[in-house]
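#struct-queue
[09:14] JT: dropping the first one here, sequence first, then the structure tokens:
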Amino acid sequence: MANGTSDADAPKLPTAARAADFVAFLREQRAALAGFLRRRLPTEEDAEDVAQESLMRMLRYRESQPPQAWKPLLYRVASNAVVDHARSRHNHRNSEHVSLDEADLVSQAPQPEQIAEREQALSLLGGAILQLSPRCRQVFLLHRMEGLTYGEIGVRLGISESMVQKYISRAIVALSEVGRAYADDASPALRQS
């Protein structure tokens, strides 16, 4: 370029497909997000306002985060927006202050971002199990899902116990590789959870 910057320095514009996917994602999540916020805010109007604010804040992440990180990130952004909203209400309504010291605000239920991360990991592992050879998958599932011993599997399938052990080893190696790749690819937003 003439002004001394290269094409690599120029901001990257979102691709049309990614932008369309992002808009579709936001539309899909709107109702669930509003429900999530209704449980955390005093009025329906507040929930709708914070939902809109959260969706607007998400625009800055559409290119910097992979699609699988959008949902957990959306709920983290929404949680932060709830805090910001509460601060704003606190500043405007100091006389209506109610102490939260007596309220039990800690939920033992998994947070939406934790649920999304778990669902993503299970989906990846399920896909990895489906990629195993049919016999390897059968041996692995008999052992892990039905709790059969190597000897019981060998008798059921008419193969040696050492062959059962080889199939289990192959499956564990394949699934471990998927697990490592998932951990390496997890976004910073997911790792902070």
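[09:21] JT: and here's the second one, same format:
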Amino acid sequence: MFDPVGAMGTQADVAVFSSFGCHGLCVPTAMLVADTARIEEVHPMECDWLVDQARVLLEDMPVAAFKVGALASIAQVSCIAEVLSDYPHIPLVLDPFMSALPEGGVPGEDMLEAVRQVLIPQATVLVLSHTELDRVAETWREPNSDDERMASDAAELTATGCEFVLVNCTAPHGHGDKKSLSNTLFDIEGEIETLSWPRLQGPFTGAGNTLSAALAALVAQGDEVPDAAAAAQEYTAGALAQAQRFGMGKLVPNRLYRILTQE
């Protein structure tokens, strides 16, 4: 998505990629009407345009990794999945939900079912929050707020072909620790590790976007997913610690902080 503020979406991704020395190519799925406080409108891009632009880029130059962010329609799910299926050897970081969108960023059941059936099986890493994981899981089970379901829900998704599931911004092991947050990484064997960091004062816009973009950049450079997840979390924590308030709304992560501190 194209966010005019640069807090999330394609502009934010490019800033993260640049921070890691990567050159990012962008195909927006929607145009946002937004400021630092809220997103007011979402205008989806036509699928024909989206596919044409993606294929033109892919025929022009090699790509080391894909990152798919928030999607604006069921039709986009299908057409993006079709493009990705032609490049099964390229790792895919899938971060399909954006909490800042209207209705909390998690779409209706039909959209969730489409993402689960055609995009998640192609993902190298699926990135989502505990709430988003619970909503996706409702496509195959009854609603359940039990924290212990996280591992079994992640197992359901890795069983479809998704290699890793990264559940972000949870309290460490569901213990309700208000002073820290955690990201938990799963593969088909179960939980690999839980990485925690001190909770920072916000509110922020684009934190999850920063994490998944950093993960995609590191995977593109050849890092193994567990190492990439740890490094992406460290980078994101730094970007949030040095976040900036450009307007009257939320804080925007400083995605170039590492470059600026080296000068």
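[09:30] RK: nice, looked through the second one.
[09:31] RK: The two ends are 31 Å apart (CA to CA).
[09:31] JT: good to know. The chain has a mean pLDDT of 91.
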